[in-house]
Amino acid sequence: MRRKILLCTIGTLGDLHPFIAVGQALQRLGYDPLLCVNASHLEKVKKAGLRAHAIMPSFEEIGTELGLSEEEAVARIMSDQDYMIREVVLHWLAESAKAIETAADGAEAIIGSLFALGGPIIAEKRCIPFVPAILQPMTTFSSYDPPIKQGFGTISSPQNGPAARAWNSLCFAVIRLELRRRYAAAINSVRHDHGLTARSTTPILEPETYRPLRLAFYPSILAPSQPDFPRNYRHVGFPVFDEADDLAERLDSELEDFLAAGPPPLIFTLGSLATSAPGRFFEASLDAARALNMRAIFLTGDEKAVSTREFLFRKYIPHALLFPRAAAVVHHGGIGTTAQAILAGKPQLIVPQMVGDQWDNGSRVVRLGVARMIGARRYTAWRASKLLDALLSQQQFGQRATALAELVSLNNGADAAAEAIDKILAGSPGISDPASSEAASGHDRVQQDASARNYETANRQGRVSFMT
């Protein structure tokens, strides 16, 4: 009999795809994964060969509940993370927790993303392991490697030494107090409904809570392990999925003909959320491509634009099929798109559209020397063309991107995550003992950061530099 595991995530495709990949890997190990997702994603999960269960209304239903048009809802969520947490995540938490509890019958563990807040509640109630899946490096709130850029202007750079780290620790303590003030009551109310006591840990982040395993769904080179990371933190790399994983999926003849008709094009995309409120991104991008006299493909999220010989417009194309054929990728900095651009080995121009992780993700890729970044408000055709010209004319960007792709591709993030989960459920020695688990975590970190050390060795030997 296959052993049941719940995988819970309520976000957009950048959140969903890694969970599909891990679900497929668990399935290959003989488990019965059930993905608990937004109702909009049920068919996508089923098409990937996995079982699915809705724990949130569809994005369309959420917009109707908010009383906003799709464009208005997306614009509000992108500009105000507090609004998103209060009016979406917490508003539906009670119903989401009930839906997860229904799905949890017979489950041996729950794997959950940051905002799937019902997951840890039901895992605690059922006395089964909960494994957090960390998709964004910024959510570790490390004083040694703090979140970068937008929304964290008071945080000091880690290069500033012990005093900066002490200041960062103080800032994060204040942030955690504010998170408790804003969100603890709503979360504890749902806990009470399920017969659980109130938690004093930080809502959403809860770094103080013991977990047998924490999975970082990104490679250590993007955000290496730090002394203040939570215990049992393991980098597994990018668990990558998109429709290209279906071997029947191929680029259609029109797209193949377009790609074959000239040099590699620029790719412009805003992921699956921001395309509903893109502002002037695509207009400026079209003018930038014209200024560079380059062909381009635009993934606009709709079917309205008319393609030409030089410019192809599509609603969506599987990134794993398209990005390797690009000259460069211009995108919003979502972690899913960032992962695909890194694995494709292409220079990137990152244009964050919202507060939160997009700025931090972009800054980390810039730090690796394979990208440039500019805020959405400053993104014009003139600035974009200048930045893209630098990315394409300076060979080090392409060389670094190729080398980084080779390095990151050494690990299969989905398989590594599934194997780590399997090891936990197999009852590894000391897994219920925080002290011995901390020791095991230290051993794991040595292995997790091996690729980063190889990377640094390459730098010292002068083969390639990943720092600008």
How would you describe this structure to a colleague?
The chain is of the alpha/beta class and 468 residues long. It contains 18 helices and 13 strands. The protein has helices spanning 13-28, 42-47, 59-66, 70-79, 81-90, 93-103, 118-126, 162-193, 253-260, 281-292, 319-322, 335-344, 357-367, 381-393, 395-408, 413-425, 434-448, 450-460; strands at residues 3-8, 31-38, 51-56, 107-112, 130-134, 214-216, 233-235, 266-269, 296-299, 311-314, 328-331, 348-350, 371-373. Strands 3-2-1-4-5-6-7 form a seven-stranded parallel beta sheet, with helices on both faces. Strands 10-9-8-11-12-13 form a six-stranded parallel beta sheet, sandwiched between helices. Helix 4 crosses helix 5 and helix 6 (93-103) packs across helix 7. The relative contact order is 0.12. Residues 428-468 have low confidence and may be disordered.
Blueprint of the fold:
Elements lengths: L2 E6 L4 H16 L2 E8 L3 H6 L3 E6 L2 H8 L3 H10 L1 H10 L2 H11 L3 E6 L5 H9 L3 E5 L27 H32 L20 E3 L16 E3 L17 H8 L5 E4 L11 H12 L3 E4 L11 E4 L4 H4 L5 E4 L3 H10 L3 E3 L6 H11 L3 E3 L7 H13 L1 H14 L4 H13 L8 H15 L1 H11 L8
Parallel strand pairs: 1-2, 1-4, 2-3, 4-5, 5-6, 6-7, 8-9, 8-11, 9-10, 11-12, 12-13
Helix pairs in contact: 1-16, 4-5, 6-7, 10-14
